[in-house]
Amino acid sequence: MGESETDGSGRGSSGADSVTSAADGPHSSTSADDGGDATTEGGEPSPGCGAPAMFDDGIVPTAEIHVAPDGIDAASCGAADAPCATLAAAVAAAQPGTAIRIHAGTYAGDAHVSGLAGTPEAPIWIGGAAGEARPVFDGGGVAMQLSAVRWLVVHDLEIRNMTDNGLNIDDGGATSDPEATRGVIVRGMSIHDIGTGGNNDCLKLSGVYDFAVRDSEFQRCGGSSAGSAIDQVGCHHGLIAGNHFHDLQASGNSVQTKGGSEDVEIYANVFEQGGERAVNMGGSTGFDFFRPPLDPAAPNAEARDIRVVANVFVGSMSPVALVGCTGCLVANNTMIDPEHWVLRVLQETESTDVYEFSPSGNNRVIGNLVVYERALVGTVVNVGPGTAPETFEFAHNLWYAADAPEQSDPALPVVEVGGVIGLDPQLAVDHGITAQSPAAAAGLELAELRGDHRGACWGSPPSIGAFEVPSRAGR
Description:
mainly beta; Pectate Lyase C-like; 13-stranded parallel beta sheet; globular
């Protein structure tokens, strides 16, 4: 957000039981992923729809190194009957194709790993063992700091009670080198109760290229102050999908993507009480921390081509904020009970005599389903100074003020095309819709729509919101 970096009613119940969790959808995590030999609990999405395949799909590890609480670090440790005691000892022996199996139990944090590299054909896995409870990293500054790593999968771990960040993945300070950290998957994680009140994050990503964060749970990140569940600084070509964010601090975010980040899709997640800005598309970054470094000869931006698609938002001060984001998309999301604004358009990083910054603009807001209370939301779209709202496109969104349907008109900064205003979307308890909903078949076809929140193919035209009508899916 604003900090500088250091290294009837038209709604279902808004309680936790009413929202489709990450584990309920087609992107649900496999237990103790071991290189592609586990099955997805939620079943496969329709062909060509849903989240894309990952680079480790179908690849079987060629070696295993075991870690256990009763293990002993020795030159020859790592066999199933002679496990290592620490991640550091296992990493020292890992080669491309190795799966580091961390067995159930509790481990100390502050593991620092640098230069660990697999290949696209033979990645390295660090994670829990199949059929066991997640191993727990409890206490320390950070559970793991992974610097300058490549083709690495971190999976099925629980991280808690860290004083700084939960998991930190970075480029080792090589801010101009896109190859420093490339090819990282974080999957099946539970990260919670992180930070002591500063700018602490559950998952910190800095200068990471070609990455995915999948099927994980994040809660209580940042201690008592601002922090993010996932904070990205200068990250590129990423996917954040099928995760469940809840109980975030009121002053923080669930997902923040800034510092020169580009081409990141935030798809089919659930955000419940996701902070002040559940998704912060852009933000405010100290100039020294941009990745790649700022260009004095061309316009810069906090974020470009960030896509927020098919998510479910319940609560938070504002589900989505576009803060110095250019060429970005907010499409086919379902937003329930925002507490102050639905969208914010802001500019926190301003041009200087040395560096020009593009204003927040040339963004699209399309096909979203919004149910809100006029008693809470006076200004639906908050537009701040230094932005370019006249360059936005609003189309085919449904706006419904449940407590005052006649006051549903959102008063947008530009004229909307195909908007649906003041009609009850008739949401089911899980926030889906039926064929009788005014949202059914009322959306706009977009190339960026890969599948609905459950991974089903969209109808033609698609419905408004995160869910397609089941009877229309795949048509």
